[in-house]
């Protein structure tokens, strides 16, 4: 069953690679919102109307033109249970909004999980492309190719003056949401983050948490994305994000270097202490796990903690989420049971992936 690998493997194949500035930029993402002309938007559609849209869009995916970009599987949300949908959310393969759509939603996934095409989410079609590191232009080029394939087989709702028509007014125009997921512990620890984030919002960008709008920035992970979709071209939107992200990278690198130069022992104590706690703790909630995994990831990137790869940290960020924990251990858990299992899983992973205690 094609869905099995998508819900059982924590680390997507695309996450196993590295990209430019991957010590700070975890991933780059392009998401395009599209709707079909003559069909009610998902929030207004009847079950039959939503089903018609799903059939039309999945049939485009099955024409074979997507195969030039790799192998794709179509999974209907009705074929997934609640836990499996939650796992796909935790892997950023579907949105929380689509996970709640149990009637006529679907997702078309590339085998390496770098492409996720959501059907009947907030809009009829959401094309998402993910790349490791700072590769926003590469993500855009792939998303644009996929968009062309669907546009050939479907009549998009488009207005000459307003651009692509979408359910939410903030997506009207290009329908593009370009974003980078950034690990910014240096700016947080040096108490510069609020000033930086305030400046970001002044240039038309938004700052969100790990799972997008309304979510918390756990583990010093921040999603930076464009707010404006109307009145600018895709190239201008991407260039603005690229320029600002480059500046944030420079600020983060400078903050890390200052901590090394001015308070190295204190920094090492914090990072090694987090490593020790992760290696031996018997119970740990998700918020503490995210923070301590962030510390260890920083120690790895600074060359202070040896024999543990950044990919292991990426994997544990997913493995320790509530849904994935229950999937791994194949049991429904109370919050306290999840905290115990989370600590157990982290201990196992760190002991498996390091040769000499990791330091």
UniProtKB/TrEMBL annotation:
It catalyses: L-arginyl-[protein] + ATP = N(omega)-phospho-L-arginyl-[protein] + ADP + H(+). Pfam families: ATP-gua_Ptrans. PROSITE patterns: PHOSPHAGEN_KINASE (PS00112), PHOSPHAGEN_KINASE_C (PS51510). Keywords: Allosteric enzyme, ATP-binding, Kinase, Nucleotide-binding, Transferase. A motif (RDXXRA motif of the pArg binding pocket involved in allosteric regulation) lies at residues 338-343. Appears to be allosterically activated by the binding of pArg-containing polypeptides to the pArg-binding pocket localized in the C-terminal domain of McsB. Catalyzes the specific phosphorylation of arginine residues in proteins. Belongs to the ATP:guanido phosphotransferase family. This is Protein-arginine kinase. It comes from Paenibacillus baekrokdamisoli. The gene is mcsB.
């Amino acid at each position: 069953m094609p869905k099995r690998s998508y819900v059982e493997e924590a680390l997507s194949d695309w996450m196993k690679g590295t990209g430019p500035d991957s010590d700070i930029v975890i991933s780059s993402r392009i998401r395009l919102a599209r709707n079909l002309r003559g069909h009610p938007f998902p929030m207004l559609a009847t079950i039959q109307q939503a089903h018609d849209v799903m059939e039309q869009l999945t049939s485009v995916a099955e024409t074979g033109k997507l195969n030039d970009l790799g192998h794709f599987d179509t999974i209907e949300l009705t074929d997934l249970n609640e836990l499996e949908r939650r796992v796909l959310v935790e892997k950023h393969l579907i949105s929380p909004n689509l996970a709640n759509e149990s009637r006529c939603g679907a997702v078309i996934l590339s085998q390496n999980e770098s492409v996720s095409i959501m059907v009947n989410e907030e809009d009829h079609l959401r094309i998402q492309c993910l790349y490791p590191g700072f590769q926003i232009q590469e993500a855009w080029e792939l998303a644009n190719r996929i968009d062309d394939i669907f546009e050939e087989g479907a009549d998009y709702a488009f207005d000459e003056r307003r651009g692509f028509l979408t359910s939410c007014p903030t997506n009207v125009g290009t329908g593009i949401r370009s974003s980078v997921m950034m690990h910014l512990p240096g700016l947080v620890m040096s108490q510069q983050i609020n000033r930086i984030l305030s400046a970001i919002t002044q240039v038309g960008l938004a700052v969100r948490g790990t799972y997008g709008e309304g979510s918390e920035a756990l583990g010093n992970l921040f999603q930076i994305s464009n707010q404006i979709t109307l009145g600018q071209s895709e190239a201008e939107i991407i260039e603005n994000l690229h320029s600002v992200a480059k500046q944030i990278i420079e600020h983060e690198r400078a903050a890390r270097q200052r901590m090394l130069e001015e308070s190295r022992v204190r920094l090492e104590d914090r990072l090694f202490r987090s490593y020790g706690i992760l290696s031996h703790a018997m119970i740990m909630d998700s918020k503490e796990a995210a923070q301590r995994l962030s510390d260890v990831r920083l120690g790895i990137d600074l060359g202070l903690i040896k024999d543990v790869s950044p990919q292991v940290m990426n994997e544990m960020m997913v493995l320790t989420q509530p849904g994935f924990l229950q999937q791994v251990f194949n049991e429904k858990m109370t919050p306290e049971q999840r905290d115990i299992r989370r600590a157990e899983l982290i201990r196992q992973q760190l002991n498996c992936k390091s040769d000499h205690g990791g330091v």
